[in-house]
Amino acid sequence: MAEEIKTEQLQNTKADFKSDQVVKWCAGCGDFAILSAIQSALVDSNVRKEDVVFVSGIGCSSRFPYYMNTYGFHGLHGRGAAVASGLKVANPKLDVWHITGDGDSMAIGGNHFIHAVRRNIDMNIILFNNKIYGLTKGQYSPTTPRGSITKTSPDGTIENPFKPGELCMGAQGSFFARVVDTEPKRMREVFLEATRHRGTSVVEVLQNCVIFNNRIHSEITGKEVRDDHQIHLEHGKPMIFGKEMNKGLVLKASRLEVVTLGENGVSEEDILVHDVHNPDDTTHYMLVRMTLPEYPVATGVIRACECVSSYDAELELQMEKAKKNSNFKSVQDLMEEKSFIVE
Amino acid sequence: MSKKTSKVIELDAVVVKFAGDSGDGMQLSGNQFSDTSAFAGNDLATFPDYPSEIRAPQGTIAGVSGFQLHIGHKEVDTPGDLADVLVALNPAALKANMKWVKTGATIIIDIDNFDNKYYKKAGYIEDPLGDGSLDGYNVVKAPISQLSKATVKDLGVDAKSADRTKNQFALGILYWLFNKDLKFGEEFIDSKFGSKNPLLAEANKRVLRSGYNYAETVEALRTTYQINPIKNRKGRFRNITGNVATAWGLMAAAERANMELFLGSYPITPGSEILQELSKMKHFGVKTFQAEDEIAGINSAIGASFAGDFAVTTTSGPGLALKGEAIGLAVITELPLVIVNVQRGGPATGLPTKLEQSDLMQALYGRNGESPCVVIAASTPANCFRYAYVASKIALEHMTPVILLTDGYLANGSELWNVPEIKNLPDINPPFVEDNVDYQPYERNPKNLARYWALPGQEGLRHRIGGLEKEDVTGNVSHNPLNHELMVHLREEKVQKVAEFIPELKVSGEDSGDLLIVGWGGTYGALISAVKDLQETGKKISLAQFNYIMPLPKNTAEVFGKFKRIVVCEINLGQFANYLRMHLPEFSYQQYNKVQGLPFMISELKEKFNQILEA
Known about the structure:
Chain A is of the alpha/beta class. Chain A has twelve helices and twelve strands.
C-alpha cells in the first residue's frame, strides 16, 4: 500500500503526525500508548502524511483522529467502518485507518464490522478492546466477560461475550492480530504489518480503561504472568512460550494442546510452526479462541493471507475493463442511444 | 379465414391497461408497447401497478400485475383515469380492473383461462361472461393460451416458456388494433432476449405476429385506431422512467462537475432500480457500493464525499428513517450529499409498491437537533433527470445534503422525454481549494455560506472534521455555548440562502384568479390535467406545482396573494399544507387529500375543484 504510493524515503518524524489538539484521555489510559505506537508505525511505513486518513466512530478511542496531524473524520456511533469503506473506494490511493472500540464495532456497529471484514477493503481497523463502555461511564459491552458486575449488570452479566477474532475469522478476515497496550514495540511492529497488508487488517488491542475497568487485562499483561499467559506468535517460528520458553502448542485430535518441552518425549520438532499466510484459517481460528486458564492468549499477527485480492483492487480492475470496453464517451451517448428525432 | 375489411378511426388519446398474473410478463408487454408508441411519435405516460409479492398465488386478485399506458396525439400528462382497452389474461385480472375501465371499453380476455377453476380463485360466484356484467363492453374472447402454444409448438421450447409467450399474443392484437409497426415490437424482443436466448426471442416474435394475424381476421375487432404522432414537437425524444431519469441526472451532474459518482445504497422497493441502473455505469466512472444496510449506505457515501467523490445515497421511506442520524452528520460536516427518497406508502413497511407523498415531514425534520437541509421534489418521470441534476448542483456548490423526493408513481412510471444536451446544462462548480493555501475547514464563501472543500491527498490541507460541534472557521471541536448558537444559525442561513439560487415559482394559467391549486412533486400530471380542463370551461383556476420545498421559492407569498382561494392537494394527510401554514400563515389553505396508495384521478380533482369554486 504505502510502498506503491512512494518509493522514495520520506523524512517523517513521529512529531509530524501529532496534531495541535490537547489529548483528552484520562491519565494512565492505554490509548496514549496506542496513539504513540501508531505514530511510530506511520514513520516506519514511509507514507505521505497527506495520504493518511483516520476515521472513527464514537467512544473514547474514537477521539483518535483529532490527535493525528493527518486527514481525519470522526463519524457516528458504530458507523466508522462504513465511512472508511466509502472513503477507500472513492480514493484507493489513501491509507485508511479505522479506529474503533468494543462498543463501537462489536455492538452498535457489529453489522458494519463483519461486512467490512467480509468485503476485504484495504484498510486497517484498530479495535481498542477494554471490555467496557468508557465514554458513557461503565456499562458492560459485548466483550465484557460473563458474570461481570457493571453499572448495568448489578447482578452480573448473563450474556456471552464476543471474541473479536472469532467474528473476524467468521467473516473470512484476511488479517487479524492481537496486541496488548503495554508493549509499545510490538504494537508498532504489528501496526506496520497491518498497514502493509493488502486487505482489511483487524488489530485487536487489549487496552486498559484505568477508570471503569482497571486491570481487566492484567492476567494477560501483568509483568509476573505475561510470559506464561501470552504466546507471541511469529511467522515461521514454532509456537513456544513461557518464562522458561519451555512450553509449546501441538495439535492433538484436532485440538490445540499445551505441552512442555522435554516432558513425555516432546521436542521442538513436535511443536506447531506458525504460518500466518495459510489460506486455510482452521489453525488461526483455534489460535484466536485460546483463553486462560487452559491456554495462553495469542498475540502478534495471527492471520495475514493475501490469497483473495481486496475489494478496492477488484473494483479498479472492473472499472478499467468497463472503460476499455465502452464506446460511450459521454452520458449524452447513453441518453441518445434509444432515442429518435422528431423533425 | 380471410382478411376482413376494417375502418380506421383517428383518436387523440387512448388508455390501455395490461393485466395478468405477476409473472405473465405484463410489465414487459407494457414497456414494449410504450417504446413502440414512443417510436411512433406519440406522447405517452405509463404506470405499472404490481403486487409486492413476487409471485402471489396464481390466478388470485392478490397476484394481479398491471400496467397502464396512455398514448396520445396531443400532450399526455398522466397514465389516464380509466382504460379504453383492457387486456385481462385471467378472471382475477378482469375482476381487479373492471372499476378502472370506461363504459363501452374493449376488453380482450384469454378465454382459455376463463373456467370454473379460475373463477373460484378470482372470487367470482357466477361466470362473469354469462351474468350480464360485461354487457355494454366490447369483449374479445381470444383463445390466447392455446394459440400461443400452437404457434411455438414446432420450435422446441419447453412448456413453461411456451405458456409465457401469451403476453406477446395479446400484444399482437394491440399492435393491430392501434396500427403499430410490428418491427418495433420485434426489435424490443431482440434487445431483451436476443443475445441470451435466441430461441426464446424467436418464439416471442412468432407469437406477437400470430396475435396480430389473429386480430386481423377475427370478426369481433372491426375497427382499428390511429393515434397520430404528436404535433408541434421537435427534437430528440425517448421513453424514460423516473428511476432511470434520476440515475442519469446524477450521472450528467458528475460529468459536468468532472467528478466520479459514488453511490452507497441498499436495495429497497421502489428505489432499487436507481442502484441497479448505476451499477451498470462503471465505464462512466460510477462506483456503486451495495452496503449491508441503509445506514452503511449513507455513511459510505459520506466517507466518499469526504474523499472528494460526488456522493449519493438512494432509498425509500423506511430507509430514509434509518438514514436520519447520518443526514445530520452530513449537515454538521457540511459535505455535499444527494439523498434520493423514492417515497412509498407507510408507516413502517406500509405499502411498498404503492404511491404516497407522506415522507415530506420526515425529509424536512426527521432528524435530531437543528438539522436543516435542502429538500426538492421531481414532478414527472422525465423531470426526475432535471431535479436529480439540480439536487446535485445545489449539494456540490452549497456544501450541503440535499434530499430529492420522488415517488413510486414517478419512479416506475414513464413518459416521453425531450433529451437535453448535457453541455447546455448549467455549470457545476464545487468550492475546491488549491494545495498549500492557508486552509480553515469552516471558513465560508460569503455569497452562499458554503465552506471550502479540501480533499485527503492534497498537500498542506490536512484537517479533521466530524459529528461534534465545530468551532466557527477553524472547525475544531467546540462546546462553547455561543459558538453552538452561531453554528446553528449559520447552517440554517446557508440552506435559506439557496433560495437566491433557485428559480421563482411559476403558475400554470393566469397569475391571478378565483382558485389556486397547490401541489408538489409527483401529482403534477393529474393536477395540470384537471386544471387545464377547468380552464377550458372558463374557470379562473391556476396551478402552482412546487419542486423547491426547502427553501421555498422567494416569490411564493406574492403568487399566493393573487388568488381568492388556495387548495393544497397531496397524497397524504396535509403535510405540505401544514408546512405552508407554518411558513406563510397569512394565507388560508383548503386541502384535498387522498391516501389510498393510488394517484389522483383527474375526474375526482375536477369534481372537488368545481365544488370549491361554486361554494
